[in-house]
Design goal:
This protein has 339 residues and is α/β, with parallel strands linked by helices. It is 45% helix and 16% strand. It contains 14 helices and 12 strands. The strands form 3 sheets. It has a 7-stranded mixed β-sheet, with helices on both faces. Strands 9-12-11 form a 3-stranded antiparallel β-sheet, with helices on one face. It has a two-stranded parallel sheet with strand order 1-10. The structure holds pyridoxal-5'-phosphate (PLP). Pyridoxal-5'-phosphate binds next to helix 3.
């Protein structure tokens, strides 16, 4: 049994989602004539509590468009040191948006408000004001950490009027885990994005939401990045299906991630799991994580090395209870054999 826990992006579209794709009504979205895209954008905007939204190819593209919409080349963007924008987009922000990042600690899952306030004040004092503050919910590099409303409010206050962008690639996970709503969790952000292709199980796509004016500008930036697509309603149909059918079930992914963490803590030892499980990720300490990835692959468990000392397991729609028990056995056997 091959158990793929590398990411929630590996999930496959279900037969029902494939049917929705097959039956989608489409048009040329470059001319704004695809009714299914329009419907997804309406639903995405409502989900995120924003007036409008634009469908884009990926989470990275949403982030890059948000930067280009909210900041000008040479402007300062305050970002968490572990943010996807900074660490996992291969320098895209320097090439695509030419912004200057100022990184602050985000090991608790969001940019430390005290540091954000200090940086915003300092740049303002020098006459080079910060253009944007970026946050993530859930926060990937700290292990799918959820950011509760109160913490986001502290961040908004620290930003002191500087626009806050929320990379909500997995905001649906946060919504379910915190028993809140994406709109509530992101209220006050200038723009918010969310991925359809991660826990929600669609083959591709993200929505980026904001005011009518900002979304209009974001559409221009999408075109500049080559992201204006045509009969893309086929993929929007998968996104609509995902939003309507795959949000509530994320609670199962979270329960399974907690179960995997419990097995590892019990069999490998206390502290084996590096951070509390808030959503669908388990960070597992291993002193030679890249080698462990290969050894686990030989045992048909796929994982990613997040850093030299950390393995990451992600639960998703393709992983059931049995897979979790088997993966827990295989990972703990591998580690015990080494001891
Ligand atoms: C927090 C976060 N933002 C953005 C992205 C980028 O998404 P994509 O892979 O669709 O470009 C990811 C991908 O894992 C992510 O974890």
């Amino acid at each position: 049994m091959l158990i793929d826990l590398r990411s929630d992006t590996v999930s496959m579209p279900s037969p029902e989602m494939r049917r929705a794709v097959f039956e989608a009504e489409v048009g040329d979205d470059g001319y704004g004539e695809d009714p299914t895209v329009a419907e997804l954008e309406r639903l995405g905007a409502a989900f995120l509590g924003m007036p409008e939204a634009v469908f884009v190819a990926s989470g990275t593209m949403a982030n890059q468009i948000a930067l280009r919409t909210l900041a000008q080349p040479g402007e300062v963007v305050v970002v968490g040191a572990g943010a996807h924008l900074l660490q996992y987009e291969h320098g895209a922000s320097a090439k695509n948006a030419s912004v200057q990042f100022h990184a602050v600690d985000d090991s608790r899952g969001y940019p430390e408000p005290g540091q954000v306030a200090e940086v915003v004040t300092r740049y303002r004092f020098r006459g080079h004001p910060v253009a944007m503050v970026a946050a993530e919910n859930t926060h990937m590099s700290s292990g799918g950490t959820t950011v509760p409303r109160g913490c986001f409010e502290q961040l908004l206050e620290a930003a002191a009027g500087v626009p806050v962008y929320l990379d909500g690639a997995r905001i649906a996970n946060a919504q379910v885990a915190l028993e809140s709503s994406a709109a509530e969790l992101g209220r006050g952000a200038r723009m918010i994005s969310m991925c359809l292709s991660k826990g929600l199980g669609a083959p591709m796509g993200s929505v980026l939401a904001g005011s009518g004016d900002l979304v209009e500008r974001a559409r221009q930036e999408r075109a500049l990045l080559g992201g204006r697509l045509r009969q893309i309603g086929f993929m929007a149909a998968a996104g609509i299906y995902a939003l309507k059918s795959n949000v509530e079930r994320l609670a199962d992914d979270h329960r399974r991630a907690r179960r995997l963490a419990a097995i590892l803590e019990e069999r490998v030892g206390e502290g084996a799991v590096a951070s509390p499980v808030h959503s669908n990720m388990v960070l597992f300490r291993h002193d030679r994580a890249p080698e462990a990835v290969k050894e686990l692959a030989d045992r048909e468990v796929l994982a990613n090395a997040l850093s030299p000392g950390l393995l990451r397991f992600v639960t998703h729609i393709g992983i059931g209870d049995e897979e979790i028990e088997v993966a827990g056995d295989r990972v703990s056997q591998l580690v015990r054999r080494r001891q």
